[in-house]
Design goal:
- Chains A, B, C, D: It comes from Staphylotrichum longicolle.
- Chains A, B, C, D: One of its GO terms (molecular function) is ATP binding.
- Chains A, B, C, D: This is Argininosuccinate synthase.
- Chains A, B, C, D: It is an enzyme of class 6 (ligase).
- Chains A, B, C, D: Its EC number is 6.3.4.5.
- The structure is a homotetramer.
- By secondary structure, chain A is α/β, with parallel strands linked by helices.
- Chain A has three domains: 136 residues, HUPs (Rossmann fold, 3-Layer(aba) Sandwich); 142 residues, Alpha-Beta Complex (Argininosuccinate synthetase, chain A, domain 2); 35 residues, no CATH class.
- Chain A has 13 helices and 14 strands.
- The first copy, chain A, has a five-stranded parallel β-sheet, sandwiched between helices. In chain A, strands 10-9-8-13-14 form a five-stranded antiparallel β-sheet, with helices on one face.
- In chain A, helix 4 packs across helix 5 and helix 8 crosses helix 9.
- Chain A is elongated.
- The mean pLDDT of chain A is 94.
- Chains in contact: A-B, A-C, A-D, B-C, B-D, C-D.
- Chains A and C meet through helix 10, helix 11 and helix 13 of A and helix 10, helix 11 and helix 13 of C.
Chain lengths: 411, 411, 411, 411
């Protein structure tokens, strides 16, 4: 009799194939699940393999649209960035994948969720716990008995041989990768030395800037309430969230835009080196930041930058998407974008993206007349005198105190 | 008899020449002051002109070193940036110039400070008030009698003709510029239309990326306590704050690095469009951010990013350099940089800058062993289980509440 | 012919009576306006006086309900407080009064708004500008010709005598007061010495704690979504926003609750000493803070405390109620209060307020079982081990670095 | 042969006596450690008991002075408070105790640290890990074998009887307590029902307000750089950090000042109800907040409140005293207090504390002349006009946008 039904996140690789077989040998019935969040995959091959190894069922779900609509666009709306550099590609996909796995588990009456992650599993499991607190998790790489059995790659290969698990003969890259619609990440292996530059062949989502076209490529992104709704290129117009995001990815790819190579602080307190290529989101974020310059109030922007952008980015990075604070922050994000509508003309060229111009009918905050030095409509130069006088009250006291303290500012 | 002695910020242009003459005609004795903060200028010509127009004295001071050491390096140390884009080039120079003008005024017994700014004068005057609260300011462009007399360029030219003020015959650029060691800014004129792209000939501090060399240029920046102390290029080593900053400017210039084109929020509540090319600081900031990834504690970094970086940048932008809050923030900046020592290998290529690698002996926070997935030294996978369980307590309650509210998260 | 119609904020006092007469003499037609925001006033007398002095009309509006519903309750929902002490009584009323004055001005076709404030007028005028940017403001105490004419109280009294303005014969308190439903403020005069204690007779809204009843008075406040909806006392139940707020005022008054005496930082950069008695809001705020302890998520609370509470309080204090940032913040306040429903038992006694207990059905965050040390349902002690191990990773590195630096933490 | 030497935090109670005996039976040599942080204790009795049970040594250290000087005064300097209510009494003592235990362990060559905490041990252990990362921790209440053996109080009593562990015959309070110089905390037991009011006899550090003297008691606290250095009462002057803190405790105690009863968010994500009486720190904090009103710059204060106060309080609460971020924050605290010198006159009466006045020679920020409405020295009323005009630019645009959007603000 089965010990129960497990919904296993299954990729077709050696690790999750081993786990699939091990779970079956342990007496579980296994429903395999694979999320399509835009990565490269031979979907039919994965299904064939899962069923061959004894899975009760292989469920593959295309989550690209909910990924873009619910999370990627939110990241764009708040200019999400982690530690000034990382656009959160992996973190953005995790909650979408985890929620879908819980849904599948519920649909097929599974009592358990399982995955092949080690440390990286934190984000998945936090999402599991929020999405269905009553579902139990089997994380083999944290079970003493499993770790005991599989102490290295040799043990995995031996088990594979004994259990007819096909092993890919193609040589593995000397780093690990995680691929989705937003980016591909590269870490571990040779990259663990933070002074070892990523080799040219590492990057999969962007051409090398030196190989990119010799002329800039120009296009326009249209936004409504902070969300990209149309991309206009010399070749035509593209709408539809996934479609236009893929187009931005292609533009970024072809022109080498969106590479970063950083050492970042992981949630658990360790530092980790990662390389990421994130073509479309890099472009979309820049355009969005630029449009906000034109239409967003300065005080709202400062509050949003200081609190919402940084906190939302940390929430996502730390696997706290399904949390009260993310919901709280997201309410602010959406509200802040009421007038962020307009279009931004962009250019990409050999690794960099530029803004060429922007316009909007949604906001009255920028006024060419006000901006002109010649116009005195809005306020008079004498008003500035009063403004300075009041602002200076505090500073004069500061200056006087410094003189009294023997440390005059005009030293 | 003289109405008193005025220290006038004098550039040699039509505006300040007019003011110089007007002050003399009004009965003041005028000491002219011009700060050398790294801009292009025919210094001898300016002096000649000032004296010819009747200035008692022309004082030119080279402030480049104090500019770099006291302010530019502080900006690098805190990754200063305004509204996600602007590196504050103009704002960084203002306090240095204003303080020097006060010093000169004190030295030559002036009772008044004067300048030729309109709205932009806010930053100067706030600094004047702090540096010497007892000194009075004459801001002609905010005096009704002056504005009355000079209602347009025609009035200025007429006054110039009547008073032998030489007028440059070279045509004026259709925008205004402000140049210093850090950047050149371009605004007003045709740029007031935010959808009017800056023409190729606008940029003075960077070559057009399409004209930059066809091969990347690599070099290394060494930092001590967050300050760049050495730049190593294929051609040799450069030390000395001004010298190495100029070298970074040259590297950025030659490779087209550091252009931004934005609409920003001015202190007084208006939006303004500005284009800036900031070659060296763009490169130095990127290298510094990168090094911090390797050596700075995650919690300190988040606090610093959220509070210090944003607030210091706003202080400077708003002309509040000489203020209690800037001093308070700067104390934090310096403290945060204790371990930010190491070197960053960089590459620039046709408009973009990249990090190639970094290393540091100053911090133990990054460990290749910890980063490796294979190492279980620091903590065991079972610890992660406990960590997740505790972190999930709050999230499970959230998920249960959502179920109770009829909005299950696994919808 | 009239120069136009002015809507004047008219209190019946010497200052605004003088302004009323002066405006008429200057050729304006004047509509007087007085807001009832809960202050003590002889309304009929004010009206009589205005009309006798030549006002075209006297409009008195009862704004108490919109004051409580739109602003006071929002202050309670976000625990508004300025500089840790001041509950913002004056600042809360200003936008309500200003908006009503603009409404009245619009209704009676006035082109001008006028008031008798000096510095304090900042809040009024910022609200005027936002509520109707096209309406012009006449602020006599900032007009050189008016200030010239009325250089002291003697000039006012002389003008009053010449123009049949009745002058109150009751002696003026040696400080100025501002009274509304929320509080009474006392400042200036003898209070300008910050070491001069407010005399016992100063306070008008609270009895002296030493004169309060000798037994505690207990009652219960019910909240829905952060708003007090019912107060239950030994004498019965009270609902209705204004009614229950008045009851809380009475409870606070009778028991001496809600006095503060502070030196605060005014918007314009000066410090000012103020005494405030704020009986009902002090009680309501305490009860609300307490209930949030029971029902609000910890991370949401920290974000709200750090950003929303402090920023909303500063907005109001600085007269920025009608602003994009206040709207942005308020959206967060309302969202944060979804589950802040329940009841809090309170006690007041001789100057202090206490919470006695609280309960709520709206949230599952507090659980008596979880709280119990004996329960191991939610997580096991072994989980704590893992939690500690992960949390300590960063701290161990810190400790090791300190040892290396020769400053061991266990010194 | 001994398994090694353990330094055990030993209180003399049933739990730690059981652990002491159990460790010995397991084969360890045990050095007992008890910190004197100001709690009530029969020190000789504890020592006698430890030695009788087989401890190699009993070390009792008086840590009161370092507790007050290094941590309590820092809390006062930054107005530390957790979730608006809790003055952190327990959290403040933990790092001092933990560090001393590590010191003692090092001194007596222990390899292990042990304690009798369950969940509460998080703060101790995080401090242990930072202070000496190489020392191992034995936390019996998280060891499966120990928990197995001691499943309830009956098991403990049985073990005590078998091992000659004396058991106190005095009935245990129906809640748990933690006592130190700063406060006594009460939680668990009957208090787990958050609507169960704390009974009158619970409080040990404050008299019931209704039993306090019928007349206010007045005194003055002198501060230097934010630290209380002298307390002047009708009975005389007290200096010395521990001495004056004890005096403030006595004043608070006698007048019933410093009780709070809250539900708080614990680090691990659960809510917990706690009652605390914190007499001296409540008074000192109020006085310090008040003095800052007089002498601290407004912008520094806002930054400090928003970032430093809240973050330092969270650090301490979460057991992160020995951390890079606490060190970073503390650097800011100390810097912010440069001018916080002066004296505050206070009054306490039946549960409440009041400020009566304050003065300082250290700062020029408050000026009686500036504060006066009659003075026009600092700025003219016309300056205010300009200030308002500039501040209103943004608000007018907001108002106009609202009109355009069909939602006029003057609705």
């Amino acid at each position: 009799m089965s010990k129960g039904r497990v919904c296993l996140a299954y990729s077709g690789g050696l690790d999750t194939s081993t786990i699939l077989k091990w779970l079956i040998l342990e007496g579980y019935t296994v429903v395999c699940f694979l999320a399509n969040v835009g990565q490269e995959e031979d979907w039919a091959e994965v299904e064939k393999k899962a069923l061959a190894l004894g899975a009760e069922r292989m469920v593959i779900e295309d989550l690209q649209r909910e990924f873009v609509d619910e999370i990627v666009f939110r990241a764009i709306q708040c200019n999400a960035i982690y530690e000034d550099r990382y656009l959160l590609g992996t973190s953005l996909a995790r909650p979408i994948i985890a929620r879908a796995q819980v849904r599948v588990a519920q649909q097929y009456n599974c009592e358990y969720l399982s995955h092949g992650c080690t440390g990286k599993g934190v984000r998945f499991e936090l999402a599991f716990k929020a999405c269905n607190p009553s579902m139990k998790v089997i994380a083999p790489w944290r079970l003493p008995e499993f770790i005991q059995k599989f102490q290295g790659r040799a043990d995995l290969l031996k088990f594979a041989a004994e259990n007819n698990i096909p092993v890919s003969s193609s040589p593995k890259a000397p780093w690990s990768m995680d691929d989705n619609l937003v980016h591909c990440s590269y870490e571990a292996g040779v990259l663990e030395d933070p002074d070892h530059s990523p080799p040219k062949e590492l990057w999969t989502r962007t051409v090398d800037p030196t190989d990119a076209p010799d002329v800039p490529y120009n296009f326009t992104i249209h936004f409504e309430k902070g969300i990209p709704v149309k991309v206009v290129t010399p070749e035509g117009e593209t709408t539809g969230s996934v479609e236009l995001f893929k187009l931005l990815n292609k533009i970024g790819h072809d022109n080498g835009v969106g590479r970063v190579d950083i050492v970042e602080n992981r949630f658990i307190g360790l530092k980790s080196r990662g390389c990421y290529d994130t073509p479309g989101l890099t472009i979309a974020r820049l355009a969005h930041v630029d449009l906000e310059g034109l239409v967003m109030d300065s005080k709202v922007r400062k509050l949003r930058d200081q609190f919402v952008t940084i906190e939302w980015s940390h929430c996502l990075y730390n696997g706290m998407y399904f949390s009260p604070e993310r919901e709280f922050l997201e309410n602010s994000i959406v509200f802040s974008q009421k007038n962020v509508s307009g279009e931004v003309r962009m250019s990409v060229y050999k690794g960099a993206a530029y803004t060429l111009g922007r316009k909007s009918d949604a906001s009255n905050l920028y006024s060419q007349e006000d901006a002109s030095m010649d116009s005195l409509e809005t306020f008079s130069p004498m008003d500035t005198t009063g403004f300075i006088a009041i602002q200076a009250i505090r500073l004069e006291k500061y200056g006087l105190q410094k003189i009294k303290d023997g440390e005059p500012l005009s030293k």
